[in-house]
Design goal:
Shape of chain B: globular
Oligomer: heterodimer
Number of domains of chain A: 2
Number of strands of chain A: 0
CATH class of the domain at 2-83 and 147-227 in chain B: Alpha Beta
Number of helices of chain B: 8
Largest sheet of chain A: none
Order of helices and strands of chain A: HHHHHHHHHHHHHHHHHHHHHHHHH
Helix content of chain A: over 70%
Distance between the termini of chain B: 18 Å
Shape of chain A: globular
Order of helices and strands of chain B: EEEHEEHEHHHEHEHEEH
Strand content of chain A: under 5%
Radius of gyration of chain B: 18 Å
Helix content of chain B: 25-40%
Chain lengths: 541, 237
């Protein structure tokens, strides 16, 4: 049998056999499958009636954003470090074997396609909400899923193509960037004209832009969104036309790749080694040293030096030093800017959705979305990362003091971000600054609660709650924990409407703080009563 | 000084350490030997309080999870874990502050000099090679002047100069009356200065050998005779 076919089929078989030894994983797959079928089955029942649906053009916008999310990193990688198609096992076994480079490249793309198909499954769970919003069935979400996969693969090929043309040559990189930007230029001009035509009304302008053929003929994102909407609306000719453009461009680039640079081993090997190094660092618990070889080469300027504090507080001052060294704004880096801008845009978008009439809905929905997003963002702080290293366990200080001090950095970050977000919302949206302050406190208290819950999880399950599949249980748990606080907020709002949003927010905040304090109390001896995560993982191997 | 009594550590149903006991006295070098998967690293991490276990571990009479024990215990992990955005000197400063040390600077300078790192004080953690990271890791463990030091594969990744210097440091620590427990695969590197050797297999200590017992064979030969024999399951002595 062909070596590559053997690897693919044997790996698939072993993966299946592995399930026999991992009943928990098998159960999880069964549960996921059940929910998938359930969402697809209920999607036709969530239709609201033909006159209530949101314009399908908005779905086109969602498809563009979705595919951009999946594709832009692949394309940008083409300018930075080449493809990430291969693992170290491929480098060590395949690259030295007498198998043609072209076949290995196809094998790499196939592997990427497989991973992409798995990771895109989350889209299929959206069938009910898509059906409810746009009145389209489960078939529509399946179309979007396949378009998403097609687009991501084309972008990957584009990334490899760009890399093979520009590798190591700044001049060529600039030319390639210019060409790519020129491809997007007509769409950008069309957007400006559309907004202008709608007197700079966001939703009206966006609809004009989304219906524009200029956008549909914009390479990759435009093609894929036009194909998706074509298929969903039953226009097969439109759908196939744009899919044809997508496949044709990928095929042309692949042929050019095979003809020009069949030997891409050295570059692929460099990237694979970097990825392997990251994985090894993670496995060895060297989570603080996860930088890639590329980022290690980036010069960090060391100006101010030294660490303050004594005992457990040294951890906090260390975090401050690390943060300011990593970026000049210290705790608040580029991620904070994205966060603030993102929430502000969401607030303005909700203004459009509510037609500017329901100010309180717009405000509370934004606060709720901010809180929800914290579930995914808060675990990225340096505090939780400390628990992957031995220092936090070995420093001779009270364990409760240690977890408080390692959490302080992320708390200050959240407080700073919430102040800026709500100050801007109050200024732009004309809300009361007092209400903004109340919301900032509620948001910070929620974040405080999440940090505390992470430590409780660590105490009782021995795992970082943000790890892997546990996050699904975690989200369900958070919803349950928040229910009494939300009920208290609703009751306060109904019984005392004269206080507006103040009393509900205060009730919610009080609940969050109470839960946070209980959680911190429960996790006070966490560092003395649980396994260091990585030490356990290494031991289990 | 380092006392391990009837330690059992299980992952799911499998015991990585099965009723293990050992004792390393002040001024002694205890060497932990064993094939891969024998349970050496699990035992080392349990001693350092990084893993939960059943049994009792004390350092100078203090429970190993107590603040008193942590203050006098140093640990050099198998894989150096440095902070990429801290300089070499800041690593030492951080440890010194976290342990509330006073007048530590001269000793820290001395350590860096011994490991050829004096000119790397301002280098960031991310700029160091793995060997250099290991040296900083050793300096961080020793800057607190611990009474007991636990090394997990300390020689891996070090250059010849680093290996020689670390072996000298270990001998010096012994002379100063510190208790040292070392897990290693590099048997010959410990041949000269061990005092007590524990050979682990399948989560148990199958042989405990004291130098004063007057060995006729080399440690390496004893190790292979034990670990390569099929029948020996052993009891913790």
């Amino acid at each position: 049998m062909n070596a590559l076919a053997y690897i693919i089929t044997r790996s698939a078989k072993n993966k299946l056999f592995e399930l026999r030894r991992k009943p928990a994983l098998l159960t999880l797959y069964a549960v996921l499958l059940f929910f998938l079928v359930f969402f697809i089955a209920v999607s036709p029942r969530t239709n609201r009636g033909a006159d209530e649906y949101t314009d399908i053009l908005w779905l086109k916008g969602i498809v563009i954003l979705l595919t951009a999310f999946a594709s832009v990193p692949s394309i940008m990688q083409g300018f930075a470090q080449g493809s990430t198609l291969f693992g170290m096992h491929d480098v060590n076994f395949l690259f030295v074997s007498p198998v043609s480079g072209q076949k290995i490249l196809i094998y790499g793309i196939f592997g990427y396609l497989k991973n992409l198909a798995y990771s895109g499954i989350f889209l299929l769970f959206q069938s009910a909400s898509i059906s409810q919003a746009f009145g389209v069935g489960a078939g529509a979400i399946t179309v979007i899923y396949f378009c998403f996969v097609f687009c991501a693969v084309t972008s990957l090929v584009l990334g490899i193509f760009v890399y093979s043309l520009t590798n190591g040559n700044e001049k060529r990189k600039n030319i390639a960037k210019t060409i790519l930007l020129l491809m997007l230029l007509p769409a950008a001009i069309s957007l400006v004209f559309s907004l202008n035509a709608a007197n700079w009304n966001f939703s009206a302008g966006a609809l004009i832009f989304l219906s524009s053929p200029v956008l549909s003929f914009t390479p990759v994102f435009g093609w894929v969104s036009a194909a998706a909407i074509g298929f969903i609306q039953g226009s097969l000719s439109t759908g196939f036309l744009f899919i044809f453009l997508l496949v044709l461009s990928a095929a042309v680039m692949l042929i050019a790749l095979f003809r020009k640079t069949p030997d891409y081993y050295e570059d692929a090997m460099a990237v694979s080694e970097t990825l392997f190094e990251r994985k090894r660092n993670l496995a060895e618990g060297n989570i603080n040293n996860m930088e890639t070889a590329a980022s290690r080469k980036t010069k960090t300027r060391v100006k101010a030096t030294g660490i303050r504090g004594a005992g457990a507080s040294a951890f906090f001052y260390k975090h401050v030093r690390e943060s300011f060294r990593a970026n000049r704004f210290g705790l608040w880096g580029l991620s904070s800017v994205f966060l603030v801008v993102g929430f502000l845009v969401y607030y303005l978008f909700m203004g459009q959705v509510t037609g500017g009439g329901e100010k309180s809905v717009q405000f509370i929905t934004t606060l709720a979305v901010m809180m929800w997003s914290q579930l995914f963002l808060i675990g990225q702080g340096r505090g939780i990362r400390e628990t992957f290293s031995h220092y936090i366990f070995m420093v001779p200080e009270n364990p409760f003091k240690k977890i408080v001090w390692i959490s302080l950095e992320v708390m200050l970050k959240v407080i700073g971000e919430s102040i800026v977000v709500f100050a801007l919302i109050c200024t732009i949206g004309g809300e009361s600054y007092l209400l903004g302050a109340a919301a900032a406190i509620a948001f910070s208290a929620f974040s405080f609660m999440i940090v505390a819950l992470n430590f409780v999880s660590f105490r009782f399950t021995g795992s970082d709650i943000n790890a892997g599949l546990l996050i699904m249980l975690y989200m369900f748990g958070i919803i349950l924990i928040m229910v009494p606080g939300i009920i208290a907020a609703v009751v306060a709002g109904v019984l005392f409407p004269e206080f507006g949003l103040y009393l509900p927010i205060a009730a919610l905040t009080a609940w969050e703080i109470a839960i946070a304090l209980v959680c911190f109390f429960l996790s006070r001896s966490v560092l003395h009563n649980c396994d260091m995560v990585v030490a356990r993982q290494v031991g289990q191997r | 000084m380092i006392s391990v009594k009837n330690i059992t550590k299980k992952y799911a149903k499998q015991a990585a350490c099965d009723n293990v006991s050992l004792n390393v006295k002040p001024g002694e070098i205890g060497v932990l030997l064993g094939p891969n998967g024998a349970g050496k690293s699990t035992l080392i991490k349990s001693v350092c309080g990084l893993l939960k276990y059943d049994g009792e571990i004390t350092v100078n009479g203090f429970n190993n999870r107590s603040i008193e024990a942590k203050r006098i215990l140093g640990y050099v992990p198998e894989f150096p874990s440095l902070y990429p955005m801290l300089t070499v000197w800041e690593h030492l400063e951080f440890i010194a502050r976290a342990y509330r040390l006073e007048n530590w600077e001269n000793f820290a300078d001395e350590l860096l000099l011994r490991f050829d790192m004096a000119d790397k004080k301002k280098k960031l953690g991310k700029e160091l090679s793995k060997g250099m990271q290991q040296k900083v890791s050793v300096c961080c463990a020793l800057v607190t002047a611990p009474q007991a030091v636990v090394f997990d594969e300390p020689l891996v990744g070090l250059d010849p100069h680093g290996i020689r210097e670390l072996k000298t440091v270990i001998t010096d620590l012994k002379t100063e009356g510190k208790a040292i427990l070392i897990s290693t695969h590099m048997i010959e590197s410990m041949e000269e200065n061990w005092d007590i050797t524990f050979i682990m297999k399948n989560g148990r200590i199958v042989r405990e050998i004291r130098r004063e017992d007057g060995l006729l064979s080399k440690l390496e030969d004893i190790y292979f005779s034990i670990t390569e024999s099929e029948g020996e399951t052993g009891e913790s002595k």
